[in-house]
Write a structure and sequence with these properties.
The complex is a heterodimer.
Chain A (H helix, E strand, L loop, with lengths): L3 E10 L2 E11 L4 E5 L6 H8 L7 E6 L2 E2 L8 E4 L11 H11 L4 H14 L15 H13 L5 E5 L7 H16 L3 E6 L2 H7 L2 E6 L2 E7 H7 L4 E7 L4 H4 L4 E6 L2 E5 L4 H14 L1 E8 L3 H11 L8
Parallel strand pairs in A: 3-8, 3-9, 6-7, 7-8
Antiparallel strand pairs in A: 1-2, 1-4, 4-5, 9-10, 11-13, 11-14, 12-13
Chain B lengths: L2 H14 L2 H27 L7 E5 L5 H8 L4 E3 L4 H9 L5 E5 L3 H4 L3 E4 L4 H23 L4 H8 L7 E3 L4 E3 L2 H35 L2 H6 L4 H42 L4 H10 L3 H7 L6 H28 L3 H27 L4 H8 L4 H11 L4 H29 L9 H10 L1
Parallel strand pairs in B: 1-2, 1-3
Antiparallel strand pairs in B: 3-4, 5-6
Classes of the chains: A alpha/beta, B mainly alpha.
């Protein structure tokens, strides 16, 4: 049985349909990515999973039972825009949010201190939130969502605005939580992160699922589409090949779109060998970014910002 | 432990520990003390500057001597020629000089020479003294004897006694009305202060997106109710501290007044200040006989008014997106807090009038107007009962209404909704 199951979940704002019959399942202990351009309905979806909003129709099940008010204590949530009390200390913020999730005062305090240490943030307890940098407050926000050790963690755009060092810290902690059995659902429009981390994805556009499944399977479904070449000397020979579609190009590199599969790749490699010293040639699956853009274009939108 | 309780406790503790709360709690009673004590002390100290007025009498009726007898510290007899007096005034040796002309009594007029200025005080003192002396002289001239004059000058005292079923007691209506007025103003101020705190705090949580964290842990209705309860508890706590501190400062002021009056007991001091027509001092010394009803009613009307208005303010803040939106949206609510203040003078004059009774039963006005009426007069029990029922009913109505706006409003960003949209939120609920 799936840990989390969405069945025909639909949400309207007035006459605008933000989520249209969303159906998918999340297995326990998986890292699940919800992708989509801005305004696709990701945040609305996450708000329904955290029971901040209720669906107009359809069902959300946790371990086979309908999502109830009490389940909120088993969910940790980091909203897209960070929310902390600026005039309170880090510890006061964490303690309050921990207590709201059902922890006692002492438990919340103890765990807050432990987590700050774990996130390279020991000694911040007495700092006011207004003194923190963006990356620092994001750490505090994250800690607030995991203090009560929820089996389900929901992160809305968790890495936006983080520097690479901090992203690394977050990725490590998320990996540790996953090993510990936490199911993690997160939304993003930064595709590179998804490729690094995710087990499964759904791709949403205009409130509808346009692609879903295990990340590896999704990529395989799009097949070999791309040839990447690295060579010594100039790439002028490429210009003499008729009807070739070059995707990316620099001095010693080129990525070429394959419309006829492996056979076309063989021909191109043969030509390259005649004109240059070929250092590398590789047929690659499309990046998630390409799948994303293609799918979103196919479902007719012009709001792509990824 | 329910989430509403956790939220209420957090709101209470995080506000009570701020410097702002501690300062305002300590400073307000001090302010009241200064407001009450300073005029009394000043009036007792007689800090009026050294003033000397020379009286030059050309009438020959001995009016100057009588005048000097009324206040020898102010007036002095003089035989100096007018030129000398004039020089002395210019040299600031004299405040001025009063010339009673030979036909002054017949024409009923005197002339006062000074450098000008000196405030109202001197003119008033002069007028009273000269008029008394002239009136007496006229009466004497018409054959009245001193006994008759004393009769004519006697002032009549009106003692006010209140009749109740149990006993007769000194009527404290004036004092109680003043206290009621003060407490109405306190309710008015606190409704705005604490309603404003709720409003700004809801907006802060909305704009900082804290409310999403809260809503992922608690029902929106519990968040709103927890906040209003917590902030209300701060208000009540501050009110109780103010009453206690004001009581303490009044007691201190009272003992200072007793020692300043040169008498031994509070009652003697009270009699002394009454005889001096020092109302302020009398007010401090005279402990008003407040009944339990007064206190309970005041607290009830304050609290119900606070819940009524602060929930509406919470709803407004939830619908707003910026501080400016709040200014626009709150006007239709705030006006109902301000309106009763405008009727206060009228109600103080006639707290029993039908007009006053009807106004005080309108729930929006009840918290302010019932407080003053209960202190200023004996409000019929059925009116109190009706106002309590109406107040509780409309408070529930306000909570219901605001709860619906709050639930939808806190997650809507970007634009200030129109009143039509807010009505739709309420309908959809």
């Amino acid at each position: 049985m799936a840990f989390l199951e969405l069945d025909q979940v639909t949400k309207f704002y007035g006459s605008y349909c933000a989520n249209d019959k969303i159906t998918f399942q999340v297995e326990r202990g998986r890292l699940f990515g919800v992708l989509g351009p801005n305004g696709a309905g990701k945040t609305t979806l996450l708000r329904m999973i955290t029971r901040i909003l209720l669906p107009d129709s359809g069902a959300i099940l946790v371990e086979g039972k309908p999502l109830a008010r009490e389940d909120q204590h088993r969910i940790g949530y980091v909203p897209e825009e960070r929310g902390l009390y600026k005039n309170l200390t880090v510890l006061d913020n964490l303690r309050y949010f921990g207590q709201l999730k059902g922890l006692s005062y002492t438990d919340a305090t103890m765990r807050a201190v432990q987590w700050l240490e774990r996130m390279d943030a020991s000694g911040w307890e007495k700092k006011k939130v207004r003194e923190l940098s963006k990356g620092m407050s994001q750490k505090v926000q994250f800690i607030a969502s995991v203090l009560h050790e929820p089996p389900l963690l929901v992160l809305d755009e968790p890495f936006s605005g983080l520097d690479p060092l901090n992203v690394e810290v977050f990725l490590n902690v998320i990996a540790e939580l996953r090993v510990g059995g936490t199911t993690i659902l997160f939304s993003t429009h930064v595709m590179e992160q998804v490729e690094q981390m995710c087990d499964d994805i759904v791709l949403i556009n205009r409130g509808r699922i346009v692609e879903s499944g295990v990340l590896r399977h999704v990529k395989a479904r799009y097949g070999i589409r791309r040839l990447e070449l690295e060579f010594e000397g100039g790439g002028e020979f490429l210009d003499r090949i008729p009807s070739v579609r070059i995707l990316e190009r620099s001095d010693h590199r080129a990525a070429i779109e394959l419309s006829r599969g492996i056979a076309e790749a063989q021909e191109l490699i043969a030509i390259a060998l005649q004109h240059t010293q070929l250092r590398r040639a590789e047929c690659v699956e499309p990046t998630l970014r390409e799948i994303f853009i293609e799918t979103v274009r196919r479902t007719q939108t012009d709001e792509v910002t990824a | 432990m329910s989430t509403a309780w956790i939220i209420a406790r957090h709101e209470f503790l995080s506000r009570v520990q701020t410097k702002g709360f501690i300062f305002s709690t300590l400073l307000a009673p001090l302010g009241i003390l200064l407001l009450v004590a300073v005029p009394i002390i000043l009036s007792q100290l007689q800090v009026s500057p050294e003033r000397r007025i020379a009286v030059c009498d050309e009438s020959g009726y001995g009016l100057a001597a009588t005048l000097v007898a009324t206040d020898s510290s102010l007036f002095m007899l003089t035989d100096d020629p007018l030129d000398t007096l004039r020089a002395k005034v210019l040299a600031q040796e004299l405040t001025g000089y009063l010339l009673i002309p030979a036909d002054g009594l017949q024409r009923d007029s005197v002339v006062f020479f000074s450098r000008g200025g000196g405030g109202f005080g001197i003119h008033e003192a002069l007028t009273v003294a000269v008029q008394d002396v002239f009136r007496r002289q006229r009466l004497l001239a018409h054959g009245a004897d001193t006994a008759l004059i004393r009769l004519a000058e006697q002032r009549t005292k009106i003692e006010r006694v209140k009749v109740t079923a149990e006993r007769t007691e000194r009527d404290q209506t004036a004092l109680l009305t003043i206290i009621g007025y003060g407490l109405s103003m306190v309710v008015y101020t606190l409704l705005f202060i604490y309603g404003g705190i709720v409003m700004r705090s809801v907006l802060e949580e909305k704009t900082n997106r804290i409310v999403e964290i809260l809503a992922s842990s608690a029902r929106p209705f519990d968040i709103m109710l927890g906040k209003i309860t917590g902030v209300g508890a701060v208000g009540l706590f501050q009110l109780v501290l103010w009453i206690a501190l004001t009581g303490a400062t009044m007691a201190i002021a009272g003992s200072i007044l007793v020692s300043m009056s040169g008498t031994a007991t509070q009652m003697d001091a009270l009699a002394y200040y009454r005889s001096q027509d020092n109302d302020f001092a009398a007010l401090v010394l005279q402990a008003p006989s407040l009944s339990v009803l007064h206190v309970v009613a005041f607290i009830f009307f304050f609290l119900s008014g606070y819940v009524f208005y602060s929930t509406l303010f919470a709803g407004i803040a939830a619908a707003a997106d910026t501080e400016q939106d709040i200014q626009t949206l709150q006007a239709p609510v705030s006006i109902f807090i301000v309106l009763p203040i405008l009727t206060l003078p009228m109600i103080m004059n006639a707290p029993d009038s039908t007009f006053a009774a009807i106004l005080s039963l309108v729930p929006m006005f009840t918290p302010i107007l019932m407080v003053i009426r209960i202190f200023a007069t004996d409000v019929p029990w059925w009116q109190i009962a009706a106002s309590i029922v109406l107040m509780i009913g409309s408070t529930f109505g306000a909570v219901w209404l605001a709860g619906r706006i709050y639930r939808i409003g806190i997650l809507r960003y970007g634009q200030r909704p129109t009143f039509r949209q807010i009505l739709r939120w309420i309908a959809e609920g």
